[in-house]
Design goal:
The protein is mostly helical. Helices cover 52% and strands 2% of the residues. A two-stranded antiparallel ribbon has the order 1-2. Strand 1 and strand 2 form a beta hairpin. The longest helix is centred in the C-terminal third of the chain and has 20 residues. The protein is extended, with a radius of gyration of 24 Å.
């Protein structure tokens, strides 16, 4: 809606919020706050807005889901509306984001992607699944390989061996999705299981509790980003023989204090 207004304003200096609000049957002041991202459209306003843009039934459904997605507060609702948006997208075009969503739905997709850089896989799905810890089924391994091929993250060499096309996969610093939350939740659960599955010689799970200013969080994020980068670029004479999941968690365990202490 904001893009539409800006485009029309460039072509016609007389375009105003009052004019747009009148034709959308919305109060101009309310419309301004919607375009500024301060308020959301009410359910009763959606039909008139869709009529103004001459949306088809499918486009109207997508717009309604988009509004509900932006208004959703609980993770259950956010995930539900996001998945409905994926279903309503044009089936003729399969955007990268859709594959990214599927990629981050399960922890073992990224694990298999990393594993293929050190493991010669030629289609033995049951064996591939058993190499993971915890292990997965042959069907899950096959579905994961199919997804990785669709995303272009792996390729098959002339020798029949599957290999990654890129060394690392990242969601990017600003790519937000409910799928990322699912992925992080799964890997956190893996870390919890590792306490019982592996002796301390095979893992490193350490914690520190410290009082800091909430204003220090950006600096902590930057230091962690640099630490992650240093791991990705780690160079030594050791040949890789294991895939590790490295989680770095910084979470508040108290409310932020005001002036009183």
């Amino acid at each position: 809606m904001r893009d539409y207004y800006d485009e029309k304003k460039r072509d016609n200096p007389y375009m105003s919020y009052r004019y747009l609000g009148y034709h959308m049957k919305l109060d101009s002041g309310f419309l301004l706050k919607v375009l500024q991202g301060k308020l959301h459209l009410a359910e009763r306003s959606l039909p008139s807005v869709c009529a103004f843009f001459k949306f088809s039934e499918r486009e109207s459904n997508y717009f309604e889901m988009l509004v509900n997605y932006n208004k959703a507060k609980s993770m259950i609702d956010i995930k539900m509306y996001f998945e409905k948006l994926m279903v309503l997208r044009d089936s003729r075009a399969r955007p990268v984001e859709e594959y990214q969503y599927a990629f981050y739905q399960k922890w073992y997709h990224s694990a298999i992607h990393a594993l293929l850089s050190i493991y010669k896989f030629k289609g033995e799905y049951k064996k591939l699944g058993s190499v993971l810890s915890p292990s997965i089924t042959a069907k899950q391994a096959q579905e994961s390989i199919t997804l990785l091929k669709k995303t272009g993250l792996i390729t098959i060499g002339e020798d029949g061996v599957y290999r990654p096309t890129d060394a690392f996969v990242t969601s990017g610093e600003k790519w937000h999705s409910v799928a990322i939350r699912d992925f992080q939740q799964e890997t956190i659960n893996l870390s919890s299981q590792a306490l019982d599955l592996y002796p301390k010689e095979q893992r490193d799970i350490s914690t520190v509790t410290v009082a800091l200013s909430s204003k220090d969080l950006p600096e902590i994020r930057e230091r962690i980003r640099q630490f992650r980068q240093s791991i990705l670029t780690l160079e030594n004479d050791n040949n890789p023989d294991t895939v590790y999941q490295i989680n770095i968690q910084v979470i508040p365990v108290t409310q932020t204090l005001g002036g009183e202490k």
